[in-house]
Amino acid sequence: MATIHLIDAEKGGVGKSVVARTLYQLFLDRNIEVVPMEADRSNPTFSNIYGKRVKKAIFSEDRQFDDSPDIIFDTALETPVILDCPAQVHRSFSKWITSKGLLELGASHDVKFVKWFVCDGGNDSVNLFLKSVQHYKGELPHILVKNLGRTDNWSILKANTAVQDAVKEYGIPTIEFPRLSEFRMNTIDTRKLTFEAAREDSELGLIGRSQIVIFLRSAYEAFDESGWTPAAIEKPSGKEAKVV
Q1: CA 116 from centroid of its chain's CA atoms
Q2: CA torsion angle for 193, 195, 200, 201 (degrees, to 10)?
Q3: What is the 3-state secondary structure (H, E, C) of the chain?
Q4: Which of 50, 107, 126, 214 is the 20 to 30 A CA-CA neighbour of 165?
Q5: What is the pLDDT averaged over residues 139-153?
Q6: pLDDT digits (tens, 9 = 90+) for 42-60
Q7: Distance (Å, rounded) from C-alpha 130 to C-alpha 88?
Q8: What gap in Å lies between CA 189 and CA 200, rounded to an integer?
Q9: Alpha-carbon gap, residue 56 to 50, rounded angstroms
Q10: Which conformational region is residue 183 in: left (phi greater than 0), alpha (psi within -120 to 50 degrees), or beta?
Q11: How many C-beta atoms surround the C-beta of residue 77 within 10 A?
């Protein structure tokens, strides 16, 4: 059974693409086949960093693109997919899911969907998460990803009783995505480094490479806690711990 991992946030600037890249690195480190896919045309991070290995899909209200996202499901019939979703994709994505009957089709063809919803703790982000959960009513599983790289203040999330009730009702896992210092992250992004390249890059120095290793280890632990990572008991073949 293959899984379509939807990395979503419904708004920009919450660190969604970093989560997508980190989850992709987990698959690579564990030698598990996966296809990275890009649907974010305004900020195509996957494509910018991983080039031609990334497949592209387009979500749009324009009818000429109605069938463009089909490549996501077609690919997942053979191989798991990690999809970096664009902001404000809810309407066109839900239309695609509904009009093509993909939840039912997935159930009959061993293809699962899961949405990793990246949250920055702000009111808009929290409400958008609730909107997505309430729309699918448990038919499309969600994971709430609290991005510690954006904030340490989760008071709005904790105070939103509707969110807390929905998390309990639908059994939504909540994970904490770790923080990598802004300086290190900016360096990686500016140089368009993969995490694999960054943890081996001599220009980052011993401490910098060690930070990246620790960040990845913590992120993998958080991902595994969700119960949605494949072969969670499988460990990387030494690359993750290498700081030279």
Answers
A1: 5
A2: 30
A3: CEEEEEEECCCCCCCHHHHHHHHHHHHHHCCCCCEEEECCCCCCHHHHHHHHHCEECCCCCCHHHCCCCHHHHHHHCCCCEEEECCCCCHHHHHHHHHHCCHHHHHHHCCEEEEEEEEECCCHHHHHHHHHHHHHHCCCCCEEEEEECCCCCCCHHHHHCHHHHHHHHHHCCCEEEECCCCHHHHHHHHHCCCCHHHHCCCHHHHHHHHHHHHHHHHHHHHHHHHCCCCCCCCCCCCCCCCCCC
A4: 107
A5: 97
A6: 788 888 899 889 999 999 8
A7: 14
A8: 15
A9: 12
A10: alpha
A11: 12
pLDDT at 171: 97
Place of tokens 């030698």: 31
In CATH, the number for domain 2-180 is 3.40.50.300
Amino acid code (one letter) for 3: T
Q: Which residue has the tokens 């904030």?
A: 151
Provide the residue count of the chain. 244
Find the radius of gyration of the CA atoms of the chain. Answer: 17
Domain segments of the chain: what residues? Answer: 2-180
